């Protein structure tokens, strides 16, 4: 049995049965039809405290296991976080081992990854008896610097990637000076942009290869790795170009429509130039989603307001979610609920106006938000039911109606949920003002 429950450290959940099924996989605990944990099976095997912790982590049932980088909120690798990590690792007293974790679908993957950045020097510091030699080249003392810059395979990969090394080669032993070289040359205009910007993928690939060798016995040659790095870099540059093209298109559209943002069947994040509510394009509906979350009682209150192209409120709704332990979860539940509600009302051409930038980011570029793959998968699954949809960022001032509705649940404990036509009478002034202002 391998540790797969994240509880400060990775550990095995406490198993309540005296006879342990060694063949039990995490996937056996998942109800794939419901895309959720199988609650009965969890109760059969584990204690209530651990069940709460297990349920906190949602899994993505439609995809294979994937890696996330734990040191960024979005789960994606960045040089800044790698640099921070290098500093942490080099401190004399290391508080915790850096680790990469996959999704929690399959126990086997957890086994491979539960201590992924533990180079043997670090593991030995922690009292684990390991062969201190590098598993690749056999050199004594496998440090982070050795793995990333000094080891024979790493050196080959740097060379074959045509990344210029420092004048006297990468420093043997000083990970800081090597990172410094990468960071100062990031904007070195005398190097081709594809080269100077490629180092995050080189580091990532070297590090990933090392872990695959260490934990799974898989080896990769330098040529394969360099090809993969090149693909990743190209993909990234392509994505940047696509983003710029979308920027351009939406800007053009935006100006030609006098400030309207409506990219049909496409998502895009672009702040409004003026924080006033604006109607959707003709034939579409606009849904503003508001959320208010109370830390005191872990209560998330959500509301949505649906308006037409003339700014008339067609429907509004609100509801609350209990046991919501963080704001990200509150935002996700609110938006998913709003989308599902509109589908149930047969509204299929909708512009969703959301205040949360992160949520828009994980819909826009899920690849950059691996930590939120469950959320992005669920949202995209729901959006797939719409004929046309788009997502825009709404500034707080333009989202006031939905926000005030949501807040009324938390502030006044109006916990009953409902859907109603038009707006509530106490918000008459606000919605009428927005309707008139938007028609000017
Ligand atoms: Zn080595």
At CATH level 2, the architecture of the domain at 285-439 is 2-Layer Sandwich
CATH top level class name of the domain at 285-439: Alpha Beta
Strand segment tally? 12
Question: Which residue ranges are poorly predicted, with pLDDT under 50 across at least 5 consecutive positions?
Answer: 92-117, 242-273
Structural class: alpha+beta
Strand content: 5-15%
Write out the distinct hetero groups bound to the structure. zinc ion
* Overall form: globular
- Major sheet description: 6 strands, mixed
Describe the structure.
The chain has about 450 residues and is of the alpha+beta class. Among the domains are: about 120-255, no CATH class; about 285-440, 2-Layer Sandwich (Nucleotidyltransferase, domain 5). The chain has helices spanning about 40-45, 50-55, 80-90, 105-115, 120-125, 145-150, 150-160, 175-185, 195, 200-215, 220-255, 325-345, 355-365, 375-385, 400-410, 430-440; strands at about 5, 10, 30, 35, 65-70, 100, 285-295, 300-305, 315-320, 350-355, 390-395, 420. The strands form four sheets. It has a six-stranded mixed beta sheet. Strands 1-2 form a two-stranded antiparallel sheet. It has a two-stranded antiparallel ribbon with strand order 3-4. A hairpin with a 5-residue loop joins strand 8 (about 300-305) and strand 9 (about 315-320). Helix 6 (about 145-150) crosses helix 7 (about 150-160), helix 7 packs across helix 11 (about 220-255) and helix 12 runs parallel beside helix 14 (about 375-385). Zinc ion (ZN) binds near residues 134, 136, 137, 139 and 146.
């Amino acid at each position: 049995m391998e540790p797969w429950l994240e509880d400060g450290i990775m550990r095995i959940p406490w198993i309540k049965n005296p006879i342990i099924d060694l063949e039990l996989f995490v996937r056996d605990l998942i109800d794939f039809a419901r895309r959720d944990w199988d609650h009965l099976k969890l109760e059969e095997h584990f204690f209530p405290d651990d069940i709460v912790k297990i349920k906190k982590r949602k899994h993505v049932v439609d995809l294979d296991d994937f890696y996330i980088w734990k040191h960024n909120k979005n789960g994606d690798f960045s040089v800044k976080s790698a640099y921070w990590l290098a500093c942490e690792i080099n401190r004399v007293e290391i508080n915790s081992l850096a680790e990469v974790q996959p999704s929690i679908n399959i126990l086997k993957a957890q086994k491979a990854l539960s201590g992924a950045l533990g180079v043997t020097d670090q593991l030995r510091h922690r009292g684990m008896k390991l062969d201190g030699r590098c598993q690749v080249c056999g050199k004594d003392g496998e440090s982070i610097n050795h793995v990333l810059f000094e080891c024979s395979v790493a050196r080959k990969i740097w060379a074959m990637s045509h990344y210029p090394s420092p004048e006297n080669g990468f420093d043997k032993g000083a990970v800081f000076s090597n990172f410094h070289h990468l960071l100062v040359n990031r904007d070195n205009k005398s190097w081709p942009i594809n080269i100077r910007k490629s180092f995050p993928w080189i580091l990532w690939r070297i590090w990933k290869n090392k872990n695959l060798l260490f934990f799974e016995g898989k080896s990769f040659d330098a040529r394969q790795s360099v090809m993969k790095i090149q693909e990743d870099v190209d993909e990234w540059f392509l994505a940047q170009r696509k983003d710029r093209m979308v920027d351009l298109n939406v800007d053009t559209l935006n100006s030609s429509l006098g400030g309207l943002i409506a990219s049909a069947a496409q998502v895009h994040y672009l702040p409004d130039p003026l924080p006033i509510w604006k109607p959707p394009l003709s034939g579409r509906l606009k849904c503003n989603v508001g959320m208010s979350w109370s830390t005191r009682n872990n209560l998330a209150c959500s509301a949505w307001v649906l308006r037409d192209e003339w700014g008339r409120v067609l429907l509004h709704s609100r509801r609350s979610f209990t046991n919501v332990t963080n704001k990200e979860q509150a935002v996700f539940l609110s938006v998913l609920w709003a989308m599902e509600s509109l589908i149930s009302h047969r509204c299929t051409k909708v512009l969703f106006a959301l205040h949360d930038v992160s949520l828009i980011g994980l819909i826009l570029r899920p690849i950059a938000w691996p930590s939120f793959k469950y959320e992005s998968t669920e949202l995209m699954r729901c959006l797939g039911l719409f004929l046309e949809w788009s997502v825009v960022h709404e500034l707080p001032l333009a989202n006031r109606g939905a926000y005030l509705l949501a807040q009324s649940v938390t502030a006044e404990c109006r916990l009953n949920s409902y859907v109603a036509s038009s707006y509530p009478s106490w918000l008459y002034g606000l919605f009428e003002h927005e309707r008139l202002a938007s028609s000017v």
